[in-house]
Amino acid sequence: MLVRPGAVRKTLPVRPLLASTPSRHSTRCSAANPLPSFSESRRILTTGSDARPWKRKSYRALVGFERNLATALEEHRFGDDVPFEGLPATLASQYQPQNSQLPLHMLRPFNVNSTLVLTEPKPYPPKQRLNPMGIPGDFEEMLSVFEACVQVGRLDRASLVLKRFEKMKTLESHRAVELHNRYLQGRVAQLIAEPSKEKAEEVHKWFELHIRAARLPFTPITLAYMLKTTLLTSEGPTQAARIDRYMSMMPHQNASEPLDLGNVLSDEDLETIAEVCPSYYIPEDASGAAEAEALRDDESSDLEDPEHHDATRKILSGTPEVLGTPQKGMGLKSLKTALSLLSELPDGLDIASLPISQRREVQARLERDCVDAAIARWRDENEQLMGMGLNTQLSTPSLNSKLYDWHQALEARLVQEQAKVEASLSAPKKSREDMERCVYGPHLLQSPANRLAAVTILSALSSLAMHGADKGIPVSNMVQQLAKIAEEDIRAQSVAKTLPKSKPRKQQSARQLMRLHDAAPTATADTAPPPPAPAPMSTPAAKPLPNEEPSEFAARWPIAIKAKFGAVILGALMDTAKIVVEREHPETKEKVTQTQPAFTHAVQLKKGRRIGVIQPNRSLIELMKREPRGEALARHLPMVVEPEPWSKFDKGGFITSASPLVRLKNHEKDQRIYAEAAIERGDMEQMMRGLDVLGKTAWKINRPVFDVMLEAWNTGEEFANLPALDPKIPIPPEPDSTDDPMKRRLWLRAVKIAENEKSGLHSVRCFMNFQLEIARAFRDQTFYFPHNIDFRGRAYPIPTYLNHMGADNMRGLLLFAKGKALGESGLAWLKVHLSNVYGFDKASLKEREEFANRNLDNIFDSADNPLTGKRWWLQAEDPWQCLATCYELKAALSSPDPTAYVSHLPVHQDGTCNGLQHYAALGGDTWGAQQVNLLPGERPADVYSAVAELVQKQVTEDLANGNEFAQAIDGKITRKVVKQTVMTNVYGVTFVGAKKQVQKQLDSLYPDIEKETGMTSSVLASYIAAKVFMALSTMFRGAHDIQNWLGEIGGRVCRAVTPEQLDRIAEASGEKVEESRATKKRAYTSSKTGEEELASHFRNTLVWTTPLRMPVVQPYRKSGTRLISTCLQDLVLTNVDRDDPVNRRKQLQAFPPNFIHSLDASHMMLSALECNAIGLTFAAVHDSFWTHAADVDSMNRVIRDAFIRIHQEDVIGRLKSEFEARYRGSIYRAKIDSSTDVAKKINEWRKKHRLGPKDELLLERRRQVLLRSLDPEEVLQGKEMVTPASIFESLATPDMLANEVDPEEMLSAGVEEEEGDVHDGENADKVEVKGKVTEGLKNFAAHLKELHGTNYFVMEINKPRRTKDRNYTRPAPQVELWLPLTFPAIPKKGDFDVTQLKDSKYFFS
């Protein structure tokens, strides 16, 4: 991926560093121009005795993974460096690497010229049909099939894919070389296994015909494969001639530059080449360096002898078992088997006490053994039943007993399918079924049948459990889920194959390098290489010869391959999985058994559409309801060693299980491409180091709390937030059949609600069952949570079940593994913390401390008799955290010196509605800042109470005017009613979402409100929600203006066409736009097709850079659908692509909240980095920061300073500057009122010229090109051109432009609501438009009156006619025109000074 000219980093006056294989989506940033890297361990052929490799530096250090680029460059002065000495001081300071002295927790200076801008990719060529050989015609499918064929050794099929690419002429030359290198790698691997002169000749022929004759810019790696082929199969003069010929094709380089030949050639190969070509040789010191590094690698990777583990064999543990829910079936047993490695350790032994090599071995086993453990467990239980003479097919209490039979049958079926695939791939004449298998077949061959069968069973049952086993699951969802899990497992197997299983030979531990003597051989005409390509070439990270990472260009499976693959394995499971059903005969009352399919394919009607679903057998549903869901993948468990530092997008965290640095939904490409480019040039350094800080925080289980929780859990009764084993949910009696039919409908609804509640409680208990099982396994261990981030930069722990972001029960179970003496302040903060978790958190710090002192008796009783005492701790808002604090306080106060007590309890400091804190700082709102504790105060301010008071004030005003809604709600506006809406408003809750939140609180607090007032809670909630929005816009006026501004600039970007897109449109249409007869015949108003075509060019997703230089890319696009035929049914699936036009509504809804999220993520990361720098233990849950009680004061100083550093900068001004640089040269579609003089002039011009929207766009593009020209005559010509934009510029003012956001959309009750957490930013509200929206909210009560006295059914029936019934005035028509993309002025900021925060005790408290 290329960086757009004009927005790149300035070139540094140093030789470009040598970098290892660039990622698939590399960027051409002039600050970091990567070439192949090398290190001391590589074998080198060089040019002279004084030519030595410089001091070894890892690639991570060179390109800025550990530090930024400028820092790394200081440590070596290249021969052609330009010294700074002698330059004027002012000029030298511009080039000196100033950032190198900045610590990680300091913000880097923002340079608008360094904005990371990636050019839009060229659209993929049109999809073609399958050819007669079964090779697909879709670009992505061809790449995926090619990689799969290479992986499974079907190089004959891989060559057919390459030939089709060659014929289509759509593959860029450097990409074609990557694929050819991958193909040659496979051929060489075959020759190593079975040397054959005939096959070697085919390789030489392939190189000549398809690489050299095609004039592809082959690389040294390409020639290395050809040299390896020669060395493996040729002898004597033939070998020497071919070596000489291939070496003569090497790029001409000077004496100091090495040739990077990868890991292809061994030491012996290099020596042979040096003998044949004296121009190249191996320096003596390089060999010693390679051996030394190989020795270091061996020492770090060696593991202790397994006999050392004899002392840690399994012994009986004194800790009770966890009561299953209600029976320990497949899910729990799978988890316990995966955790069996930990159970082998003696009770009380911490893995942290073992040598690091043993700890890493334990971690690696935890990561890789889950699937194998499941197969072994199924086999063992099956054999046990068979040994007892029991038939495993009979109905048994556990599903486990059947899974081995399922696995055996499915494995046999998959073996048959793989054999059919092999036959289809080899068939000279292919049937329709053969053609289908040629598409998905190579992927099916990548996994052994027995493992693929186990993965299919585990993922199928897990999917059913997650989606609700009794409801079934749509075929499309099931197919994609099975394919996704299978793909991840295949990738994990591929990575595992590359891990060294023994000490590697020294030449396998690094790439090989050669250097050329000064006297380079002169290439003859016969052997001259083709002209070099103008663009730099990249070398693929090919699969090992013998050990290296898998290919980086192996993209995710395309949607069609996933669908076909998933349908095949799902169909095989449905055919082979059987279950024995035992029923009572209706007449004879005898028990009758019958074998039935475990899964059936059915069709259901949903919203008038026929949907295929997978319906599990009723007996299977009953079994699954008695068992937790079966998920025990490696990423669900904590680590027993510190996580690997993040160095690449998918390298960090777990040791062997790959996890992405950025969490992506539906494998969005934009965020990954930007993140990889930012990593490559060092922009993600602070974010990655921040994740490392969060990951290296060590944790342990709070044993006293765990023991209490386990005892309470095993009773099966409801306790604190633990649901009961068998919850008693009352169901109303069934009405008589003669009663009103409406009563029966209400009864059915009540029954459904009760069943859903019971099912929900069961799911919660199953989830907690997993959490307790994991906690029990890790009860004596020190463990860690690897973290990654979402696309906004917010950090999350990767382990699913046991982590500090869980509910109260999980937080109460966790302690810091490292303790710290309390000290005077720590003891006080421990007492404040107890008050906070109890719920007494609105008082001053002194009052909170006194609250703990007043309740010392209760605290001691809770710690001494948690289950048999007064149970004071159960009354707390967070009871388990309260109990943990009671234990800590009792232990401290009972010690001889409480201040010397070593505390392990994390103490939390929570922000006051952190999103509003950022908004208040951005807008400079003094009143708002005071309400969210940005200003010093004697007591903590409560923004929720303040908003409730404002709402009540508005209600009182309406009451005086006789408003019936005000009469109904007067006196009922409490803090609790408005809290959730205030909290989520900043995160973009829609009006509909806010109404639902308020309605929920009204129903809870005032269940009889409809009887008392005669109005439904839904109508009253709408009235209150409108008042809440008005109150917030009043309190946070500056923030409100910022929201409006963000919506406006976002709307313009989403309707803009970039220079690259303009060039492509012009190229397709012809550069010159003239008025042809065809054009004149087409009226402007009849260009609907043209408008639709132009809408497809609006592909600019909103991208911005956080204060820590992380690029944020919003993923919301209008993805198309694709009909895919599978063996089960035709599937209509969403096809996500970077070429999709943006979803403008979602982009605008999500922009303000996501922007705020990116700021609070930066604040947290800065705080983590500085806390780590000063030696504090740190953890965070978004806007809740944790550390030891003794360090709370230090952490508070850090988080205040970090917030001030962010907001002392011009955050909004920087965003505007970045947008101007990022979208420079774009043209957007603007709107103006048709009644203005400007609009009338434009319409007159259009009647005369009769150009369509596309032609007008190209005309405006030509005008802009002329105006930017350096030729004065062309500039004059541009000024004389007349376009709608030039008319607007000459007659209009910027305020004539229509707002990009429709204010009515915010009040619409029909806004589409999506499921999910509103904090994800996807349910973000439309940004209000100042003035219009406020007026709309004030008049909102009038719109509610017509709803009074109606029910839901009437509302639904009348919904389409509602606008006609109101006094609705259609807005004036608007005229659209193309304008150069500019952005409005930033709203005036208020007078709040963020430095006043330094003295605020309650900013976080």
Automatic annotation (TrEMBL):
Region of interest called Disordered, as start-end residue ranges on this chain: 14-35, 288-311, 522-550, 1067-1087
Entry keyword Metal-binding: no
GO molecular function, one term: mitochondrial promoter sequence-specific DNA binding
Domain DNA-directed RNA polymerase N-terminal: 361-696
EC number of the protein: 2.7.7.6
Keywords tagged on the record: DNA-directed RNA polymerase, Mitochondrion, Nucleotidyltransferase, Transcription, Transferase, Transit peptide
Cell compartments where the protein resides: Mitochondrion
A GO CC term assigned to this protein in UniProt: mitochondrial DNA-directed RNA polymerase complex
PROSITE patterns: RNA_POL_PHAGE_1, RNA_POL_PHAGE_2
Alphabetical list of Pfam families matching this protein: RNA_pol, RPOL_N
Biased composition (Basic and acidic residues): 1067-1078
A biological-process GO annotation: mitochondrial transcription
Catalyses which reaction(s): RNA(n) + a ribonucleoside 5'-triphosphate = RNA(n+1) + diphosphate
Polar residues bias locations: 20-35
Pro residues biased stretches: 528-537
Family label: Belongs to the phage and mitochondrial RNA polymerase family.
Function statement: DNA-dependent RNA polymerase catalyzes the transcription of DNA into RNA using the four ribonucleoside triphosphates as substrates.
Name of the protein this chain belongs to: DNA-directed RNA polymerase
